[in-house]
Fold this sequence. Notes:
Layout: E1 6-11, H1 15-26, E2 31-35, H2 41-46, H3 48-69, H4 81-106, E3 109-112, E4 115-119, E5 122-125, E6 129-138, E7 142-144, H5 159-162, E8 171-175, H6 179-190, E9 194-199, H7 210-222, E10 226-229, E11 233-238, E12 244-248, E13 253-256, E14 258-261, E15 265-267, H8 274-277, E16 300-302, H9 313-328, E17 342-344, E18 350-354, H10 357-364, E19 367-374, H11 377-382, E20 388-395, E21 401-407, H12 411-423, H13 428-432
Parallel strand pairs: 1-2, 1-6, 2-3, 6-16, 8-9, 8-14, 9-10
Antiparallel strand pairs: 4-5, 5-6, 7-15, 11-12, 12-13, 17-18, 18-21, 19-20, 20-21
Amino acid sequence: MANYDYDLFVIGAGSGGVRAGRLAAISGAKVALAEEHRVGGTCVIRGCVPKKFMVYASEFAHNAQVAEGYGWSPSQATFDWRRFLEAKDREIARLSGIYVTNLNNAGAEVIHGKARLTDAHTIVVEGKQTITADKVLVATGGRPWKPTEFPGAEHIITSEEAFQLPELPKSIMIAGGGYIAVEFAGIFAGLGVETTLVYRGANILRGFDDDVRSHVTEEMKKRGVKVVLGCQHDSIEKTESGSFISHMTSGHAIETDLVMFATGRRPYVEGLGLETAGVELNDAGAVAVDKFSKTNVDNIWAVGDVTDRINLTPVAIREGAAFAQTEFYGNPTTFDHDMVASAVFSQPPVGSVGLSEADARHQHGKVDIYLSRFRPMKTTFYGGDERCLIKLVVEAGSERILGCHVVGPDSPEIIQMAAVALKMGVTKPQWDSTCAVHPTLAEELVTMREKHVPLGTAA
């Protein structure tokens, strides 16, 4: 048997890589992880964690308006962007430190620097330190994609730069219709920035249920976000004052202080030496793996966003844990990617698990729809016009619930528990047998009895 420096070498110390490396080290294996940026990866350093802090910060202005409706005096509070950034950076540093501590306590070694494979068992870090390993796990995540094909594309920022803006702009254009674009539109609008969201498609949040998509669009407009659909950039012109004019395919020209693109992320495979080691990529440029996260090279695996399966932090963690169980605990384990719940921290937020109505009809034929749109109790009290949406997609005949979709306050919290039921194959009669918790928004989930008939459709 060959003598290697490590039993496992992990390239990338994000959520998936850290979980795999820590569990492998606890088993007694000799483990090292290489990270070219900061330990914690996309989620902790430049993704969902700092984003959620920004969502919290941006909600307070709206909450202050609601408070007046409940009898509180008008607030004179102002927002200090730089003070927020300092507090956010301190918390991110603390969380990154916890990751490092947990790895060290497990016996894993953290190496700072970019790692590159020179063959299936050899890694060079920062072009100087050469390391050999029996097993290699690639967990490098993804990076924002930026266009380069039109004039002025060099002026674009991405979500990564948005986390460290030196000052808050007065206006911003955000290009994109996915969850990152929608979330940042809510964040900037909530912080008082004049916000325009531009998307080339017919509606935002592609992949989500169509009723959810249209509902979120209308509610975002109520929060002050200008939503422009069906067009994209022709060019970006920088003015003498430092602002930017976005020239659109629709013929419109929109001037803003910043232009941010959130038009997708790509698996981060550049400069890793995967081709040298013989690792195959799929048509999307992601590392191709089997159900055990193994590549075509016998001693190399990959987990998380670099595989472009379901690009969510908890999925990467579960994939990393399954890899460690299989390879270091003698317990062959795969992660089931079915019925994975997701949340969009838009304003209002979205919680979704299972199939959209359209996908359910394509896969299962006849389905029954239960749909409720309503003003929540909190909103009706002060005369607000915000509305929630709750939707169930049910397979006709078996009455198994195929999809559950919630838009409204606390929907990400609600969907977590709904996901448990759907994962277990719950039917509509079983669902309905659950007694409601009153007064709550979530009780609508178990009190809908009438099937939804779209307008213009015969009952």
